[in-house]
Structures are given as C-alpha cells and as structure tokens.
Design brief:
Layout (H helix, E strand, L loop, with lengths): L5 E2 L9 H12 L16 H18 L5 E6 L2 H20 L9 E6 L2 H13 L3 E7 L27 E5 L1 E2 L4 E2 L23 E4 L17 E5 L10 E6 L6 H6 L11 H6 L9 H17 L1 H25 L3 E3 L10 E6 L4 H11 L2 E2 L10 E4 L6 H18 L1
Parallel strand pairs: 1-13, 3-4, 3-5, 5-8, 8-9
Antiparallel strand pairs: 2-10, 6-7, 9-10, 11-12, 12-14
Bound molecules: 4'-deoxy-4'-aminopyridoxal-5'-phosphate.
Length: 402
C-alpha cells in the first residue's frame, strides 16, 4: 500500500499488509457468518473453532510437546509479571506445605529493564524472597548499563526456587540470549538446579516465534504479548507445563495467597481460554498472521530471514562505528536479533538521522525514552527489502557525516 511507511517501532509494530487486508474483510463479515469479527459471540461455534486453530498453529510451528498447554489471556507481559509469581508460589506451596514463607526463594536473572521490572513486581507481591541470580549491569564496562548477557560463571541459582525467571530478549536494551549453546551468551541450562521439573519461566514478549524456542519442553512457563511478532496488542499467549496448572484454591488451604480467578492458569486451562470474553479481534488477527507464517515456512523460514535482517543492520552499524558515526550499545555476542540499538555520535546527529529516515518513509527508530539512542526493531513483518532500505540509508548517512 503506497500510503504506508515502514514502521520499525518496538511494539505495537508492523503487521503484514495481506493480513491487514484480510482482517478488514473479517471486520465486516467473519468467515461468511454475516457478522463482523468484532461483533460475533466468543461462544459461537465459528469463533471457538478459530481459537482452537490458533492454538494448533502455535503448537505445530513451535513443536509444543503434549506436556504443555497453549493458553490465551489478556493483560500483556505486565500482567504475567504478577501471574507467574502467584501461580508458581501456589504450586510451590502445594509441593512444600511446610517450608516457611521466608525461606521460599524466587530466582530472577536480570539482563535489562524488563526483567528488572518483573523482579520488582515479585518483590512487591511478597510470598517469598526474590534473589537476583545475576545482574548484567555488574558485568558491563560502565558497571551500570544493561549491555550484555553475563557469562555462565556469573550465575548463582538457588537450590529449590519456586521459579527461575529470565527475559529472552530485552526490548529496551537490545540484549538477547544466544541460541548457540557453545556461546557464553546462551542461557546456562546446564547450571539449573536439578529438579525433575524445572520451574523455569521465560518472558518471550519481543522474540516469540521469530525463531524456534530452544529447550521449550524444559520450561515451566513461556509467555508473550502478541503485539511484536504475531499480532496486535490485547492478546497474551502462554505455554504452560501441566504441573504448573495448579488448583490455586487448594494452595490457599496450604497457606498460599489467593490468586485472582482471571490470573489463575487453571481457570484459563479449564475454560479452554474462554473463561471470560477474550480479545476477539486480537485473536483473529493473530490467527491470520500465524496462518501466513506457516504458509511461508514456519520457524525455520523466520529464523533464516530474521538472522539475515539482523546481520545486515549490525554490519552497517559496524561500518558506521569504524567511521566514528555510530556507536553500538551492546557487547558482541549479546546482540538482539529483534531490537538493534546504537547511538549516533555528534551534536544534533541523532536528530539528523531520524529526520532523514522520516523523509524516506521510515519511522519508529527512536530508542526507548529511558535509554535514548536509536532502536531498529526487526520483527517478523519487517521484510528484507525494508531492512535493505534502512541499511542503504545508513550508508548514505555515514557518507554525509564523514
Ligand atoms: N516484557 C518485554 C520483554 C516487553 O518487551 C514488554 C513490552 N514492551 C513487556 C514485557 C510488557 O508487555 P505489555 O506491554 O504487553 O504488558
């Protein structure tokens, strides 16, 4: 569509045009029902069948094992900061009714502003002791920047924590765990406490379905808001291992805190994610995106595409860095594929960069307000051509500035 510009925003973010066109039709008439998708009952057979298909699309593409449920809810990643704590504390309480609350630990791997926020929410809720397993700032050159994934030697997990939390991709800071197991920036699975059922929780909000999820079956909970890679805002996707779907009311009788009914994973599971009115439109659009993704070739296709896109942008940042125009913000080996962050050096240079990009129809490049600089978000819907357009512009800009 010629009226559209390229949106490199961090979320909500670009969606495929073909999906938007299809969704526009569905808004008027959903699957020939004569009723628009935003108007149809969430209990209608057409819509419930659609939801089951969204679930199947996720299961197939991520190869979710039968040990895990795929659930849908609302409230975004932020609501899950709370929900994971409450559900995992309830689970722990049922497993260990005699452990005093003060001895219950929750391990947080802090690699950026989102995992920091998650740890703060766990602290707020109480019910256990929050332990920071590692704080990436301590491993930065400045001692205060989230610019790296700490080396494996920096982790100290508790013996039997109620949960172990990490954020796979830090959207603001642009750091991400490497999927190369040989890399020191990979998640240290081999150091996890040897529970038969690991309480490992991962925030995949900004990297969900951009590539396969390593060790998916070893996770207790994986969650993501849809609004980066797979759909509009309003839908939260959960992958929860069956043993983490617990009777939260029975846990209360063992001394756990009550869990609001809409935050309980058991509520979502028992109702097949339809306890209350879901985000019907967001689920619909996400379904359309996921269908398209499967047609394109699924996770293997997106992994190859996203790798190529990220490498192209990091390459030009490197060129700009060698010419004193750009400065990468993230340590080599810890770079995110989804959010590439760098500074533009010199007086007024950042503004010149952003203005030039805007003139060429590229937006959403301003870094998060807490850290500044430039952030290029390369979610699934950003094409190789759009990425090349940005890379080309970066080369031009480097030329102009030197
Ligand atoms: N975690 C991460 C990694 C995120 O990027 C975000 C949103 N940008 C959140 C959590 C919070 O998600 P939401 O806005 O959907 O609550």
């Amino acid at each position: 569509s010629p009226s559209r510009i390229t949106n490199f925003g961090a979320g909500p973010s670009a969606l495929p045009v073909s999906v938007l066109e299809e969704a526009a039709k569905g808004l008027l008439n959903f699957q020939g029902t004569g009723i628009g998708i935003a108007e149809i009952s969430h209990r209608s057979s057409e819509f419930t069948a659609f939801v089951r298909n969204v679930e199947a699309l996720i299961r197939r593409q991520l190869r979710v094992p039968p040990t895990h449920a795929v659930l849908f809810t609302q409230g975004g990643g932020s609501a899950q900061f709370s929900a994971v704590v409450m559900n995992m504390l309830a689970r722990y309480r049922l497993l260990h009714p005699d452990v005093p609350t003060g001895d219950v630990t929750m391990d947080y791997v802090v690699t950026g502003s989102w995992s920091k926020k998650a740890a703060e929410e766990a602290e707020r809720l109480g019910g256990g002791q929050v332990r920071i397993v590692t704080d990436a700032r301590k491993h930065s050159v400045s001692g205060k920047a989230f610019d790296n994934i700490p080396p494996h030697s920096a982790y100290a997990f508790s013996k039997d924590p109620a949960l172990i939390y990490y954020c796979e991709n830090e959207t603001v800071d642009g750091v991400e765990f490497s999927h190369d197991v040989a890399s020191s920036s990979s998640f240290p699975y081999h150091l996890l406490p040897e529970n038969t059922l690991s309480p490992l929780v991962a925030d995949y909000s900004s990297s969900f379905m951009c590539r396969p999820i390593p060790r998916l079956g070893d996770h207790a909970i994986i969650y993501a808001g849809a609004q980066k890679n797979v759909g509009p805002a309003g839908l939260t996707i959960l992958i929860v291992r069956q043993d983490c779907i617990v009777d939260v009311d029975a846990a209360v009788r063992c001394g756990a805190a009550p869990v609001p009914i809409t935050l309980s994973y058991k509520t979502l599971f028992d109702s097949k994610s339809l306890y209350n009115t879901p985000s019907v439109l967001a689920l619909y659009m996400t379904g359309l995106v996921l269908e398209r993704m499967e047609t394109m070739g699924g996770m293997e296709y997106y992994e190859a595409l996203n790798k190529k896109k990220a490498e192209a942008v990091y390459e030009v940042v490197k060129v700009g860095s060698s010419r004193g125009v750009f400065k990468p913000k993230v340590k080599e080996g810890s770079e995110s594929w989804m959010n590439v962050v760098f500074d533009v050096i010199g007086d007024g240079a950042e503004k010149r960069f952003l203005d030039g990009a805007a003139q060429r129809g590229m937006s959403g490049l301003k870094g998060h307000r807490s850290v500044g600089g430039i952030r290029v978000s390369l979610y699934n819907a950003i094409t190789e051509e759009q990425t090349q357009q940005l890379v080309q512009y970066c080369h031009e800009f480097i030329g102009q500035e030197t």
